[in-house]
Design brief:
By secondary structure, this protein is an all-beta fold. The chain has a domain of 68 residues. The protein contains no helices and six strands. The radius of gyration is 15 Å and the shape is globular.
Length: 109
Amino acid sequence: MELDERSLPTGRSKPVRIPPAPLGERSFDDAFDGLAVPPEFAVSGGGCRLHVLFLEGYRFAQVYAPPDSHCISFEPMTAPVNPFESDRTRLVEPGARYRARFEIGVRKH
């Protein structure tokens, strides 16, 4: 998602593909929409692969890997950042239900 100078979504998006590569010196603080179905984010290292699979109800994601760190976070989101300023936010009527599920998996190589 394209962000403004305050790091809030502008409502515009652009296609992106992040090629597999070591996290190394790369850092991320990015919001995503228009995700594949089902969306999956994964990282490998130390002989393991960790994935976060969005099973239901999550149409947005935040990926965060701060500079000079060996950490990464995949955050499933039900609405874009700043949801009250977006026409893409799904509202749930009082008494109604909304279901969202994700799966975290770890597999040894």
